[in-house]
Amino acid sequence: MTEVLIPQLAHARRRGRQRAIVVGGALLAVLFVLGICEILLAGSAELPVDKIVPAVFGRGEGLAAFVVFDTRVPRTLTAMLAGCLFGLAGHLYQRLVGNVLATPDILGISAGASAAATAVITLGVVGVGVQISAVLGAVGVAVLVFLLSWHRGVSPYRLVLVGIGIGACASAVTTYLVTRAEEMSIERALRWMIGSLGGADWPGVGVLAIALVVGGMLLAVFSRGLRTFSLGDDLAAGLGTRVSRVRFGTLLLGAGMAAIATSITGPIGFVALVSGPLAVRLVRSADASVTAALVGASVVLAADLIAQTAPVISPVPTGSITAVIGAPALIYLLVRTRRRP
Fold it and tell me: Which CATH number fits domain 2-339: 3.10.20.30, 2.60.120.10, 1.10.3470.10, 3.30.720.120?
């Protein structure tokens, strides 16, 4: 029996890797096409192609240099990198909890980042940066959710319920702060309620790139423990996984990735929710981290392209487009989860 099963398992793994490579290549091609469309078509300024191409590489002059190299290129890269972080964070939480509805959006992580950033903007807190406050708010909510969920360990269902409650409280705080803010602060604060790529710049691209590299390395460290989570907490502990430590570490890691992305773009909703399930379906594997990152990047970049170029509605915040896409996806996932035995 063993002599038959081992070759079959090896063949299945080999086919799985080949499928992941093909899917990854296809998603990279989609990202390349979307990136070109974003640079050529997005925005209100009309520029000839012969001026756009040199400007992409920093060799443009005048208006082309500003519009392309200082605006469109960093916006495109920000969409890709932030989408990767949102997709990774969502897939990480879904694997951690074992529920497709468990994402930084649902668990209140993004709401915590928004509340902290809005507080700094509207209250004028001196000495605290908006991006730093967003990261601290998200990590603080993650720790609070973990502590309130603790009862002889952390139950995944309790984690989701507590996260929804904390997220609702954080969203209420954000709404209250906006209603009490001055008119000049409201416009900045609204970005933290919807999510927008309008403020993308090169320093933000650098922060997102570093976060993606570091987050990917830490994810590789936790990957073995996450694989055992699918077997249940008791069996995972029996295999040597320190369940609580791995769960808390991955909770903070996902919160950090989502928080840094949110600190640059605002809470672009539902990207973390849809990226993981789509990636799992594409590669037919529960471990689809790289694919989830690429799916997240594609979703954010496509949404931003629509937000800037769609007739009648454009320009609109990127988060409003992802909400239109994500709301039906959330309903579908809720219905599908309910129908499972």
Answer: 1.10.3470.10
